[in-house]
Amino acid sequence: MNYEKLTPMMKQYFEIKNQYKDYILFYRLGDFYEMFFEDAVTVARELELTLTGRNCGLEERAPLCGVPHHAGDLYLGRLVEKGYKVAICEQVEDPATAKGIVKREVVRIVTPGTVIDPSLLDEKKNNYILAFFKNKYHAIAFADITTGEFKSTLFDPQVDSYRLLEEIQKIDPSEIIVDKNLEKQLPWLYKSLSSQYTLSVYHEASFKSDSALSVIKRIFGVFSVESLGLVPQEEQTAAVGALLAYIEETQKVPLKHFDRIEHYNQNSYMMIDRFTRRNLELVETMREKGKKGSLLGVLDKTCTAMGGRKIRQWIEQPLIDPEKIQQRLDAVECFHADMFLREELKVILRQIYDLERLASKLVYGNINPRDLVSLKNSIALLPDLKVLLSRQDLALVDQLADQLDLLTDVFDLIDQSLVEEPPIAVKEGGIFKEDCHEDLKVYREVLTNGKNWLLAVEERERERTGIKTLKIGFNKVFGYFIEVTRANSKNVPEDYIRKQTLANNERYITPELKSLEEKVLGAEEKMMALEYQLFQELKETLLKQVQRLKSTAEAIASIDVLYAFAEVAFQHGYCKPVVKDECLLDIKEGRHPVVERIMDPGQFVPNDTYLDQDERQFYIITGPNMAGKSTYLRQVALITLMAQIGSFVPAEAATVSMVDRIFTRVGASDDLSQGQSTFMVEMNELANILNNATSKSLIILDEIGRGTSTYDGLSIAWSVVEYLSKRDGIGAKTLFATHYHELTELEGRFHGVKNYCIAVKEVGDDIIFLRKIIRGGASQSYGIQVAKIAGLPNEVIDRAKDILKKLEANDINNNMNALKEGLTTEPEQPLADKEADLLREQLSFFGSSASEQLVKELSQLNVMDMTPMAAMNCLYELMTKAKSVSGGK
After folding, report:
1. Quick check: helix, strand or coil at residue 75?
2. Counting beta carbons within 10 angstroms of the beta carbon of residue 278, is it exposed (0 to 12), middle (13 to 18) or buried (19 or more)?
3. CA–CA separation, 361 and 353 (whole Å)
4. Are 631 and 661 in contact (CB under 8 A)?
5. Distance (Å, rounded) from C-alpha 30 to C-alpha 28?
6. Is 580 left (phi over 0), alpha (psi -120 to 50) or beta?
């Protein structure tokens, strides 16, 4: 491109665009943001806008696309949602006083992780941006720039490589910052992250130790990063420093709301992998990805945006410290027991605005006068809130009450300065009370008197000229003028100076009117300029109190969550769980917190659960589809999790042992983008469980091995049960729902394995699901009956029954059951003749050639001298072999 031929405006555009090549440039021209060339084509396509052109000095017109300035945030937000990054270029000098082309600069960069406009954010969800750096250790740092939250942690790659990805997925950032080496260092991680998140490759220099340390010390005003609680590791320093540099570069303001970095250990919380978060639907449903229908949807009765974000964090990070859990439970119990206290809390909390994001708006300078009034009104509620909390005698409640700063000086400053209902705009006046500044009072008096002066002049001139329709008007071009109809122009005095002639009117000015105009308009302009200056000074003063605002906001958020837990417990009849650091899970009349809410009152059937690490460590649960197995499994996991976040639980009583992780293997779908079939996804999830579970874990398995052939799947499921139930193995508390009835044979073979099933009542060919978990194994799957309930044609149902009878007649497992029922000899005695005949009878199902072979092998093994159990085991092996020889007949 020949830049010499470009117009001055386009030369300026390219000077700025070349500094922001990876961003869409919103270039301010008058009342519009304009995009040119490739940016214009992209925006027109993504936002479905009209693509036009502009003469820029070249032979061809430049592609052009524009959006109105006043609606810029709307279009910007839609682009950011699609993963684009936008640089906002504004006019930074007054066009009226500019010499030559107006000076322009990029004043802010907006990326998915740096959005600050509340209208583009979910008020009850954090918008995190995360930085990752790898060397000897792996380090992540993440922040929400709208609340000032900043955290970091380290991973040992020798033991925590899997947990690294799980932690990132738990945080669920909108954007991830990495250096250019990651793709070569960890290609699997780079591929995974880039497929799920907006990945921004940031310049390598920002990750260097010296550069990162310098940024951290400057922003936090410290001499040593250790004073911030950072582990003195190069990797953590690099991640924190690079993230701060990126945020500062995009926001272009001092980051005064970042006052601390919370360094945390992942082992301080229950680990929940992405499969478990998805399967248990903790914060969103699997299908609609919405809050309604999730655990969060049930528990979130918070009254503030701050509380809404906090409750999401608590659900995704259950505690494993019994003392902290107990403090939360005691506080919930306190609120739960006092209905009047809850009502008073609700009334106060509902009136409190989002103090965290108001504080951040102070930092970024985009706070308006009405925001400050909202801040003042919120602060006015704090004394009553503190009094309410101070009446309670509990450690956590007292701690939160002490953390509440009443901010009386902030309240007084805003109250003494701003009018009760100020405008949103900061440059049009009408913001401040007139007695807050002497000059402002003078200007207001001039304006008030000026209007009276104009009315007096108008009345006097009417009497003087005799023109009853004479009036004084105003426009921005001529200022104040006297307007007379053309019919009355002959009565105009000689000292009137004609200024404008219209079709039906003449407009005049007089020296007196111009003098009055100078006083009035001068006072108005000076008043607006003074109010704008006073507002900037007020913001600077309040900016110094940001950390106090954040601390108070954090306390309010926790109070709000505890209130929500208490309110939900009261509304739905939850109980306070007993949480112990021992291997016992004892739930009486437990219910699923979400499913019971979508059913009519009293319709949900509760169930008991008792798991330990001795006699009842492993439940094998059988029963038909749709009978309630999956609901039961999930409710046990959810009750455990709810107890460890400090919530009451849906049960009559519950004793919950501390678990370090909850694993779930529930259903599966293929992942074609990663080249994985349904069965491969299932096995990956299972491998994750078996490789990472501990004796303190809770494992929920809903079908294993259903994605392959029956015998392959059964073999895998059998082996998994054996592996998890070994006395010297993992020993994790496990619930395993399955359709493999053969697995019920494992009770008695392996220590701690117990059979349970869903009770079903048969009425002719129909079944009724009783939804009750009882001891014992199910006798059949009732699949055909379920298919009938689902509405399959009768012809299909009848044919399925016929096929089932034939298959069962040749099924080795049914034959073995028949054999078992026919064996009546004492366990340690040789088989009787009639029982030996029964053995031979079972062989007939495999054809004559196979039977002869088996009879020969049986006679060689002296099976007639074996005990019943030994004979059955031997027969099972030979039947399996015979089935293979006979081609599976």
Report:
1. helix
2. middle
3. 13
4. no
5. 6
6. beta
CA distance linking residue 721 with residue 723, whole number of Å: 5
DSSP per-residue letters across 365-386: T---HHHHHHHHHHHTTHHHHH
Residue 751 has pLDDT above 60, yes or no: yes
Structure tokens at 629: 């197995």
Least confident stretch, 35-39, 82-86, 103-107, 820-824? 820-824
Mean pLDDT, all residues of the chain: 86
H/E stretch holding 134 reads strand 129-134
Confidence of residue 482 (pLDDT cuts 50, 70, 90): very high
Residue whose pair of structure tokens reads 């901010």 in the numeric block: 407
Contact 88, 80 (CB under 8 A): no
- Rg of the chain over Cα atoms, rounded to whole angstroms, equals 38
DSSP 732-763: -EEEEE-S-GGGGGGBTTBTTEEEEEEEEEEE
Nearest-angstrom CA–CA distance, 261 and 153: 10
pLDDT at 845 over 50: no
Angle formed by the axes of helices 783-790 and 794-809, nearest 10°:
170
Number of H helices, E strands in the chain: 30, 26
Q: CB under 8 Å, gap of 24 or more: what pairs does 868-873 form?
A: 868/823, 868/825, 868/827, 868/831, 868/835, 869/827, 871/823, 871/831, 871/839, 872/816, 872/819, 872/820, 872/823
- Asked whether the beta carbons of 166 and 274 are under 8 A apart, the reply is yes
Q: Residue 169 is which amino acid?
A: Q
CA pair distance 353, 375, nearest whole angstrom = 7
Contact present, 765 and 785 (Cβ < 8 Å): yes
Instruction: Look at residues 323, 333, 345 and name the one whose alpha carbon lies nearest to residue 389.
Output: 345
Largest CA distance in the chain: 143
Q: Six-digit token pair at 346?
A: 């609700």
CB-based contacts of 429, cutoff 8 Å, min separation 6 = 524, 527, 528, 531
DSSP-assigned states of every residue in 481-523 = EEEEEGGGGGG--TT-EEEEE-SSEEEEE-HHHHHHHHHHHHH
Give the residue carrying structure tokens 């048969």: 762
Could you tell me which of 221, 224, 258, 227 has the C-alpha nearest to residue 243? 258
Question: What is the distance between the alpha carbons of residues 604 and 598, in angstroms, rounded to a whole number?
Answer: 9
520 class by beta-carbon count within 10 Å (0-12 exposed, 13-18 middle, 19+ buried): buried
Asked if 572 contacts 591 with a C-beta cutoff of 8 angstroms, the reply is: no
The pTM score is 0.83
Closest CA to 810 of 887, 869, 863: 887
> 16 and 25 in contact (C-beta within 8 Å)?
yes
Question: Hey, what's the torsion of the CAs at 251, 415, 310, 653, to 10 degrees?
Answer: 180
pLDDT at 787: 73
Pairing status of strand 479-485 against strand 505-509: antiparallel
Helix axes 382-390, 339-349, angle to 10 degrees: 160
Contact 140, 262 (CB under 8 A): no
DSSP lists the bridge partners of residue 52 as: 64
Per-residue pLDDT band for 828 (boundaries 50, 70, 90) equals very low
Region of poorest pLDDT, from 179-188, 259-268, 633-642, 675-684: 675-684
* DSSP one-letter string for 191-244: HHHHHHSEEEE--GGGGSHHHHHHHHHHHHT-S-GGGGT--S-HHHHHHHHHHH
Handedness of CA 769, 717, 654, 309 (dihedral sign): negative
- pLDDT at residue number 824: 46
764: left (phi over 0), alpha (psi -120 to 50) or beta: left
**How far is CA 81 from its chain centroid?**
15
